[in-house]
């Protein structure tokens, strides 16, 4: 007895499978575009990193939109009274020497495989510049680096490891952006000391600057119109010669080539594009087989 002929794909099935094939193909095209865009951005970032650092705050301010990844080398004074912690977050890439194994006493227990958790230390940094005719002072925010969460309690094991330089000092840094949650905006707990923020919140940092000036009875007790556009820098380390974690100076900074790295690299976009195109091709093949079934 001959088998009954199989029915061809219905009109609804054609629309469904056709939409899936077209949708995955469009996603593949989009990821391909993102791949080339990231290639251009990565190249520009690497070129800017190689340029000589900007040593004048005024010049850096004018060029920060044009060269957002160029290094700044500025001199000023930290205001540790306004220190803020952002986190908890993991250890930044490249902060430790490659052969260094974090000890449990100083860096917490990282045996779970998720790595030690801690906070980034953000401190106001007052920069004063003067020329023959004028003198100006501007406060910027500097992400000084990362500390383990155990440092907040100032235990015996961590005493003296958290450095807070006093007086005038020069830092190397790269501008970064404040963060703005895309969906839900978590609320910070302003009751904790030192103050801890969940993310790099520009509005919260403005409040911190105003509180510092109020406490000091500073006539500039309000954020000035110029400082409405706050600048956030992340301090970088230029050398990586320390070998023993107990001798490392905290907070830990990342090297320049790790700052501003894109969370999704061009290689990842290429992998996504390959996946979407592969799914589109497989769907097209299956749709064709279903369309010709029974013929």
TrEMBL record:
Region (Disordered) location: 89-110
Q: Which domain of life is it from?
A: Eukaryota
InterPro entries in UniProt? Surf1/Shy1, Surf1/Surf4
Any idea where this protein resides?
A: Membrane; Mitochondrion inner membrane
UniProt KW keywords: Membrane, Mitochondrion, Mitochondrion inner membrane, Transmembrane, Transmembrane helix
The record describes its membrane topology as: Multi-pass membrane protein
GO cellular component, alphabetical, reads: mitochondrial inner membrane
Q: Per the similarity annotation, which family is this?
A: Belongs to the SURF1 family.
Instruction: Say what the protein does.
Output: Probably involved in the biogenesis of the COX complex.
Matching PANTHER family, A to Z? Answer: SURFEIT LOCUS PROTEIN, SURFEIT LOCUS PROTEIN 1
Q: What is this protein called?
A: SURF1-like protein
What organism is this sequence from? Seminavis robusta
Taxonomic lineage: Eukaryota, Sar, Stramenopiles, Ochrophyta, Bacillariophyta
